[in-house]
Amino acid sequence: MNNTLKFIVSIVIAELVGIIGSFLTMPSIAGWYAYLVKPEIAPPNWIFGPVWTILFALMGIALFLIWKKGFDTRPAKIALGIFSFQLALNLLWSIIFFYLNSPGAAFIEIISLWLAILATIISFAKISRPTVWLLLPYLLWVSFAGYLNFAIWQLN
Asked: CA 63, CA 124: separation in Å to the nearest integer?
Protein backbone atom coordinates (compact mmCIF):
# COMPACT_ATOMS: atom_id res chain seq x y z
CA MET A 1 0.00 0.00 0.00
CA ASN A 2 1.44 3.39 -0.92
CA ASN A 3 1.84 6.19 1.61
CA THR A 4 -1.01 8.30 0.24
CA LEU A 5 -3.46 5.47 0.78
CA LYS A 6 -1.99 4.73 4.23
CA PHE A 7 -2.45 8.41 5.12
CA ILE A 8 -6.08 8.44 4.00
CA VAL A 9 -6.89 5.16 5.76
CA SER A 10 -5.23 6.38 8.98
CA ILE A 11 -7.29 9.58 9.00
CA VAL A 12 -10.50 7.70 8.20
CA ILE A 13 -9.92 5.19 11.00
CA ALA A 14 -9.44 7.94 13.59
CA GLU A 15 -12.27 10.15 12.31
CA LEU A 16 -14.65 7.18 12.16
CA VAL A 17 -14.36 6.80 15.93
CA GLY A 18 -15.27 10.48 16.27
CA ILE A 19 -18.24 10.10 13.93
CA ILE A 20 -19.59 7.12 15.85
CA GLY A 21 -19.10 9.00 19.12
CA SER A 22 -20.93 12.04 17.77
CA PHE A 23 -23.96 9.94 16.84
CA LEU A 24 -24.13 8.80 20.45
CA THR A 25 -23.50 12.31 21.77
CA MET A 26 -25.73 14.54 19.66
CA PRO A 27 -29.13 13.43 21.03
CA SER A 28 -27.98 14.20 24.58
CA ILE A 29 -26.59 17.65 23.75
CA ALA A 30 -30.07 19.10 23.20
CA GLY A 31 -31.64 16.86 25.83
CA TRP A 32 -30.07 15.61 29.04
CA TYR A 33 -26.79 17.57 28.73
CA ALA A 34 -28.57 20.88 28.12
CA TYR A 35 -30.11 20.76 31.61
CA LEU A 36 -26.93 19.98 33.52
CA VAL A 37 -25.22 22.59 35.67
CA LYS A 38 -21.79 23.19 34.14
CA PRO A 39 -18.71 24.98 35.47
CA GLU A 40 -18.24 28.57 34.38
CA ILE A 41 -15.28 27.73 32.16
CA ALA A 42 -17.23 25.16 30.14
CA PRO A 43 -16.88 26.09 26.47
CA PRO A 44 -19.96 26.53 24.28
CA ASN A 45 -21.30 23.31 22.77
CA TRP A 46 -20.41 24.31 19.21
CA ILE A 47 -16.66 24.22 19.98
CA PHE A 48 -16.54 20.48 20.71
CA GLY A 49 -17.20 19.32 17.15
CA PRO A 50 -14.37 21.28 15.50
CA VAL A 51 -11.92 20.54 18.32
CA TRP A 52 -12.59 16.80 18.22
CA THR A 53 -12.41 16.75 14.42
CA ILE A 54 -8.95 18.30 14.59
CA LEU A 55 -7.84 15.99 17.40
CA PHE A 56 -8.98 12.87 15.53
CA ALA A 57 -7.18 14.12 12.41
CA LEU A 58 -4.00 14.57 14.47
CA MET A 59 -4.42 11.04 15.83
CA GLY A 60 -4.78 9.79 12.26
CA ILE A 61 -1.61 11.57 11.18
CA ALA A 62 0.25 10.08 14.15
CA LEU A 63 -1.06 6.63 13.21
CA PHE A 64 0.13 7.20 9.64
CA LEU A 65 3.65 8.10 10.82
CA ILE A 66 3.81 4.82 12.74
CA TRP A 67 2.33 2.81 9.86
CA LYS A 68 4.80 4.41 7.44
CA LYS A 69 7.63 3.00 9.55
CA GLY A 70 5.96 -0.42 9.40
CA PHE A 71 3.88 -2.56 11.73
CA ASP A 72 6.18 -5.57 11.52
CA THR A 73 8.28 -4.82 14.62
CA ARG A 74 7.32 -5.66 18.18
CA PRO A 75 7.35 -1.99 19.32
CA ALA A 76 5.08 -1.04 16.41
CA LYS A 77 2.63 -3.85 17.18
CA ILE A 78 2.54 -2.83 20.84
CA ALA A 79 2.07 0.84 19.89
CA LEU A 80 -0.76 -0.07 17.50
CA GLY A 81 -2.45 -2.13 20.22
CA ILE A 82 -2.23 0.71 22.75
CA PHE A 83 -3.47 3.20 20.14
CA SER A 84 -6.45 0.96 19.32
CA PHE A 85 -7.21 0.54 23.02
CA GLN A 86 -7.23 4.30 23.63
CA LEU A 87 -9.53 4.80 20.62
CA ALA A 88 -11.92 2.26 22.11
CA LEU A 89 -11.77 4.04 25.48
CA ASN A 90 -12.46 7.35 23.73
CA LEU A 91 -15.64 5.91 22.23
CA LEU A 92 -16.56 4.24 25.51
CA TRP A 93 -16.41 7.59 27.31
CA SER A 94 -19.03 9.02 24.93
CA ILE A 95 -21.24 6.02 25.56
CA ILE A 96 -20.94 6.26 29.34
CA PHE A 97 -21.26 10.04 29.65
CA PHE A 98 -23.77 10.93 26.95
CA TYR A 99 -25.62 7.73 26.07
CA LEU A 100 -25.87 6.32 29.60
CA ASN A 101 -25.98 9.79 31.23
CA SER A 102 -23.46 8.78 33.87
CA PRO A 103 -20.87 11.48 34.66
CA GLY A 104 -19.53 9.59 37.69
CA ALA A 105 -18.74 6.42 35.76
CA ALA A 106 -17.48 8.52 32.84
CA PHE A 107 -15.04 10.30 35.15
CA ILE A 108 -13.56 6.99 36.26
CA GLU A 109 -13.33 5.93 32.62
CA ILE A 110 -11.69 9.18 31.48
CA ILE A 111 -8.85 8.55 33.92
CA SER A 112 -8.22 5.26 32.09
CA LEU A 113 -8.45 7.09 28.77
CA TRP A 114 -5.91 9.69 29.92
CA LEU A 115 -3.48 6.96 30.98
CA ALA A 116 -4.00 5.13 27.67
CA ILE A 117 -3.28 8.33 25.73
CA LEU A 118 -0.09 8.81 27.73
CA ALA A 119 0.89 5.20 27.02
CA THR A 120 0.17 5.79 23.32
CA ILE A 121 2.39 8.87 23.29
CA ILE A 122 5.23 6.98 24.99
CA SER A 123 4.95 3.97 22.69
CA PHE A 124 4.64 6.12 19.54
CA ALA A 125 7.60 8.31 20.58
CA LYS A 126 9.87 5.26 20.49
CA ILE A 127 9.05 4.88 16.79
CA SER A 128 8.46 8.45 15.58
CA ARG A 129 9.25 11.51 17.71
CA PRO A 130 6.90 13.91 15.82
CA THR A 131 3.92 11.86 17.00
CA VAL A 132 4.45 13.29 20.49
CA TRP A 133 3.58 16.78 19.22
CA LEU A 134 0.61 15.45 17.27
CA LEU A 135 -0.86 13.67 20.31
CA LEU A 136 -0.02 16.24 23.00
CA PRO A 137 -3.06 18.45 22.16
CA TYR A 138 -5.25 15.35 22.57
CA LEU A 139 -3.80 14.66 26.03
CA LEU A 140 -4.29 18.30 27.03
CA TRP A 141 -7.88 18.39 25.76
CA VAL A 142 -8.75 15.15 27.56
CA SER A 143 -7.20 16.65 30.71
CA PHE A 144 -9.57 19.60 30.35
CA ALA A 145 -12.46 17.26 29.52
CA GLY A 146 -11.63 15.30 32.67
CA TYR A 147 -11.93 18.48 34.72
CA LEU A 148 -15.26 19.33 33.03
CA ASN A 149 -16.49 15.78 33.57
CA PHE A 150 -15.59 15.88 37.27
CA ALA A 151 -17.14 19.33 37.73
CA ILE A 152 -20.37 18.30 36.03
CA TRP A 153 -20.53 15.18 38.16
CA GLN A 154 -20.06 17.22 41.34
CA LEU A 155 -22.42 20.03 40.35
CA ASN A 156 -25.23 17.66 39.46
From this structure: 9
